[in-house]
Amino acid sequence: MQDSTSCSYGCHHNSDAEERQQYCISIVPLFNHLDLDELKEIVQTTRSHQFPKGQIVYHSGETSEGLYIVHKGSMKIYRLSGNGKEQLIRILGPGDFTGELSLFSASVHESYAEALEPLELCIMSRDSLQSFLLKYPQIALKMLGEFTSRLAESEKQATRIATETVETRIAMYLSNLSEMQKNSGITLPMSRKHLASYLGTTPETISRKLADFEASGWISQQGQRQIQILNLDALLLV
């Protein structure tokens, strides 16, 4: 893994740096139920790494260092097909994590991770994570829940790409996003290029289909990432 700045919490840091590390851990669903002393214990085992926009965090085939937690910024997880085509798996923001499969074995990454903007990660080693799972079983239950959720989403995504039309995939994505954000005015969490990769199509097709939806009076586009859903029922019938 490449990095531009690396430091261990156990070194001498000012209070601001310590607070940032603690906040990084506290916003992760795996750990946010722990009390302050338990959080501080976990923070002691993490390292902070920073990456500029566009830098590769890790490559497919590299050995996983452990649990990668996003503190600031965002990064994309993707795979490359045999012809070099990128397939986006997910985009991670503050509080999200990846690398949890290293818990079970000294595994290698099957995908790539790249900083989409200036990125700060907190990284916990496999050994430390295993120790905390034994000490705090509730963390293991939270992680099992996350595994289940990711597996279900991956299966749904694979089924959509294999069986649904592009129009349906885009419409379903918009309606699901509206439900998640609990608002008819939604914000796309990724660029149209990345959305196209995620939905198994092209950026040009994304733009064309959104324009078609707008012409039908179902949505109103308010910039590249802002969309107002005007007729959710019509989208659900696409």
Describe the structure.
This is Crp/Fnr family transcriptional regulator. By secondary structure, the chain is an alpha+beta fold. It folds into two domains: 5-137, Sandwich (Jelly Rolls); 164-236, Arc Repressor Mutant, subunit A (Orthogonal Bundle), CATH 1.10.10.10. Helices cover 42% and strands 24% of the residues. The protein is built from eight helices and twelve strands. The protein has helices at 15-26, 36-43, 126-135, 137-163, 166-181, 192-199, 203-215, 232-236; strands spanning 5-8, 46-51, 56-58, 66-72, 75-80, 86-92, 97-98, 112-115, 119-125, 185-187, 219-221, 226-229. The chain has a five-stranded antiparallel β-sheet with strand order 1-2-9-4-7. A four-stranded antiparallel β-sheet has the order 3-8-5-6. A hairpin with a 5-residue loop joins strand 5 and strand 6 (86-92). It starts with a strand and ends with a helix.
